[in-house]
Each structure stands twice: as structure tokens, then as C-alpha cells.
Amino acid sequence: MALLEVEDLTTYFYTEEGIVQAVDGISFEIERGETLGLVGESGAGKSVAVQSLLGLVRPPGHIVDGSIRFKGEELLDYSETELRNEVRGKEISFIFQDPMSALNPVFTVGSQISEIIEHHHDVTDEEAWDRTVELLDDVGIPDPAERADQYPHEFSGGMQQRAIIAMALSCEPDLIIADEPTTALDVTIQAQILDLFNDIQTEYDTSMIYVTHDLGVVREVCDRVAVMYLGEVAEKAPYEELYRNPKHPYTQALLRSTVTADRQVGELDPIEGSMPSAIDPPSGCRYRTRCPAAFADCAEVEPADYEVGPDHEAACLIYGDESKSDPRLHETGGGRGGSGGTGGRGRTDGGPRADDRDAGGGGLGGDR
Ligand SMILES: Nc1ncnc2c1ncn2[C@@H]1O[C@H](COP(=O)(O)OP(=O)(O)OP(=O)(O)O)[C@@H](O)[C@H]1O
Ligand code: NI
What we know:
alpha/beta; 8-stranded mixed sheet; 4-stranded antiparallel sheet; 11 helices; 12 strands; 28% helix; binds adenosine-5'-triphosphate; binds nickel (II) ion; ion transport; ATP hydrolysis activity
């Protein structure tokens, strides 16, 4: 059993402008000790997705569908009180982008961490304090005993984020969720914090969800990646596989726009256009309005998660074997299927599967 199994999670915001389909049916799993990177452009729904996991979405936002099983238990059945007392900051810790939102300026850093330890464990003040100093040491804070007595404002940004990480570790959670934890930091400090996340993984064997817009950062810390676009998961794969063999046109574009081992700043190719509104997203495939590989069906057929390799799925019709004439589409098409049409792309006949083709380089397949 995976540590966390998210299925069809759907979170909408009911605003005066309309229904914001921020997260629209995403599924992923996390095994024990594994780090999943949740990647995508701003507005893709990454933060709403992870906030949904912990019941942190506030009205007008609501989780309207799906399932979140953590160690086999359905978190959506938990009350707010149960989530607060039994899950948040105990089994699952959250690290935010802005460290100061998690640190209270009027208490010393050490006292804030000790308090959490005492809250979750049956320990004396002294034991909690010793553990606090040990944790500060583990996250690379020099002179931890003295630092523990200081206030948050006496810490630099990088040190504050380390303190937050110590705080997140203090209850020995099974899962840490980090939402863009390094974006507020300068590049050198960022790299150090990423190293720290790696060390923590090794030492504590904690599972992690790491939210970022940067596929380069993902490489540093993640075992597997889920690429999000406009509320949906476009592609899921182990990092190396995703990096070497991206299948979804969006992932390919995202990689071309990212600094990586093989691609320097001067060679970047930014993704054209901007993400459409989540209030009235494009029909069919949501990426189609920016997709260089889009064809007629993309406006009408919602792609499923097609298996394109081992532990590798892509939600792109290129890899589907449906066509508009396929009756299965009308079960899920929600009235979008339409009638007539071009007869699709003839993939129902067991023709060559898209995954046999090399999707690398500029062109996606050769048959369009
Ligand atoms: N309180 C809210 N009310 C209405 N819409 C919201 C609210 N919070 C988020 N959204 C919308 O939900 C969508 C997803 O937002 P989210 O913050 O999850 O994106 P993100 O991928 O985390 O982006 P970023 O990289 O900028 O943090 C966006 O369209 C956003 O405008
Ligand atoms: Ni976000």
C-alpha cells in the first residue's frame, strides 16, 4: 500500500466570476520514503492541490470530488478537528514558501520547536530542548544551542527556512509537503536547502511532496514527478524517465524552457502564450490552445492517463487509441463528444502505438 493515494481529487472555487476549476481530477501516489515533485507553471493548481490534502482550502474553495487515502485512511472523512489534532503537523508537515508565515516573531526559535515536540511526545522540557538543539544541528544551523535562544528576526532567510524544516521534522512526520520552499531565497542558499532536503530524505526516510515551477529543482530532490497543467496532471514518471523521455507536449515545452544539465540559459525556449483561465478552461485537452501538436480531436476528447512506459503516464491523445467514433468516449465525454466528425485518427485498429515512437526533439510523431 502506498503511503498516500490521491484519486481524482477535484477542488473548485465558487467565485462571483464563476467556478474556478483549480484542481480537476488529479491522481497520484507516494510510496514511503519517496519524494514526488509537483511541477507546473504559476496557476497550474499545485498549491491548491497540496492544501487540499490537508484540508487547508478555505471557502469559496471546496473539495468537490475524489479520495485522499493516507496510510489507508480516507482523509476526506476526517473532521477539521481530527485533521488538526491527528494529521497536520503530526503525520504530515507543511513547509511554506515564506518562512515568516510559520515562525512566530515573539517567541524564540527553540521554544517554538520545543513546544511542538512536547505537544506530540511525552517528554520533559529538558528532553524537548535537547531534541530541539539536535534538530537545529541536523538542518545545518551552526551553534545550534545558542541559536535556539534567538528570535526569528535574528536569523537570515536561509536560516529561517532551515528552522522551519527543523520544525517540520520535529514531530517525525511520515510525509512532508514543501510548497516552493526555496523561492524566497537566493540561488546559493537555495542549493544548500535542496542539499538539506536530500540529507533529510536519507536520514529520516520521510516521504515528501515538493512543489515547484522549476523542473531543474525537481532533479535535485525528486524521485518521481507529476507535471500539472491548468488543474490536471499532464504527465507522471520517475524523474530520469521524464527527463530523458518526456511524452506530453507540455512537459517537452517545460523542459525546453528549463535550465538543465544539457541546456544553459542562452538555449532556453520559453513556452509560448499563457495558461488560459481556470474558470472556463478549453474543452477536451486543456493544453491544446498552446500545443504545437494539437489536432482536431484535442478540442473534443478529454485525454485519459495513457501508459507510455514503465511507471509513466501521459494525458495526451497522441498516445490514446480512441477516436471520435469510439463509443467509449461518449460515456465520459459529458456531451462534448459531438457527432459525425472526421472519424478520428484511426488508432482503434491496433496500429502502431505512439509509445513506440520517439517523441524527443521538435516533432511529436511523424503522422500529422
Ligand atoms: N482563494 C481563491 N479563490 C479563487 N481562486 C483561487 C483561490 N486560490 C487559488 N485560486 C485559483 O486556483 C488556481 C490554482 O492556483 P494555485 O495557487 O494552486 O496555483 P499554483 O500552481 O500553486 O501557482 P504558483 O506557482 O503561482 O504558486 C488559479 O487559477 C488560482 O487563481
Ligand atoms: Ni502555489
